[in-house]
UniProtKB/TrEMBL annotation:
The protein's name in its UniProt record: 3-oxoacyl-[acyl-carrier protein] reductase
Pfam families: adh_short_C2 (PF13561)
TM stretches of this protein: none
Species this chain originates from: Tamaricihabitans halophyticus
An example Gene Ontology molecular-function term: oxidoreductase activity, acting on the CH-OH group of donors, NAD or NADP as acceptor
High-level lineage: Bacteria, Bacillati, Actinomycetota, Actinomycetes, Pseudonocardiales
CDD domains for this protein: SDR_c
Signal peptide residues on this chain, from the entry's feature table: none
Length: 236
């Protein structure tokens, strides 16, 4: 039977590369995102199915359910990003609260809500992979905290789906290119500093991350669960 996958945030960056890998492995792939036109364009390119919805909006998720596959073998919770990038530094407590809530919503709640909505559809031996970040180790304010919380939630999810042979893992990239993550672009000195921290002297590529996700999504990876896998060139 053909395995089915859903990749949230699949129109760009890591999500698009992951969807392409899973397609190459013969899976039926649904990609999601908020920008319907871009999503449709990427879906045509990859031979995937586009379903547009906001992963943080319970009503939008519920409305999208009829368009999503009735059996899900692979769920990649990739949608997210640092919502502070490009935003002014919070000037007061109200703005700080908003900044943290936006990051928690985009990176933690999106994954929790989408996974919970699809829990009954997860097949035996399902694979759930959620994007974490090197930022979970520290720094990046609400973004880092949200990605750390993803790891905590993932361990609980592993127990929930483990009884049916399912696995749940986090893939935690370091600097990865090319994506829309840094919006208008990463300043060259900051990029050089991040590369300097790696052991192999380079930025990650979207294909580096997609390759790790593809392995964890495979039937062979059935005894790896509840883990967070750094894919960051050995960044220290
Ligand atoms: N690039 C890096 O250096 C890096 C490092 C560590 C971790 N990560 C993580 O990797 C994941 C993918 O990021 P990326 O680097 O590939 O950046 P990206 O190109 O910006 O991809 C993020 C994707 O998620 C979608 N998305 C964002 N919020 C969404 C929402 N609420 N509902 C539905 N879709 C949403 C976006 O599409 P729409 O805007 O159309 O919705 C976009 O396609 C993220 O979780 C990010 O935190 C990236």
């Amino acid at each position: 039977m053909t395995r089915t996958a859903i990749v949230t945030g699949g129109a760009t960056g890591i999500g698009k590369a992951t969807a392409a890998r899973l397609r190459a492995d013969g899976l039926d792939v649904v990609i999601t995102g908020r920008r319907a036109e871009l999503l449709a364009e990427t879906a045509r390119e990859l031979g995937a199915t586009p379903v547009a919805f906001d992963a943080t909006d319970p009503a939008a998720i519920t409305a999208a359910l009829p368009a999503l596959p009735p059996r899900v073998d692979v769920l990649v919770n990739n949608a997210g990003g640092n919502t502070d990038i490009g935003a002014p530094a919070p000037g007061d407590l109200v703005a700080l609260r908003q900044s943290w809530l936006r990051n928690l919503e985009a990176n933690l709640l999106g994954a929790v809500l989408v996974t919970t909505a699809l829990l009954d559809r997860l097949a035996e031996q399902s694979r759930v992979i959620t994007l974490g970040s090197i930022a979970a180790r520290g720094g990046a304010a609400g973004y880092g905290a949200a990605k750390a919380a993803v790891e905590t939630w993932n361990r609980e999810l592993a127990r929930t789906i483990g009884a049916r042979g399912g696995t749940a893992n986090v893939v935690s990239p370091g600097l990865t290119e090319p994506t829309e993550f840094f919006g208008g672009g990463l300043p060259e000195d900051r990029r050089a500093m991040l590369i300097e921290q790696t052991a192999n002297g380079r930025a990650g590529t979207v294909d580096d991350i997609a390759a790790a996700i593809r392995f964890l999504a495979s039937p062979e990876a059935g005894h790896i669960t509840g883990q967070a896998l750094p894919v960051n060139g050995g960044a220290a």
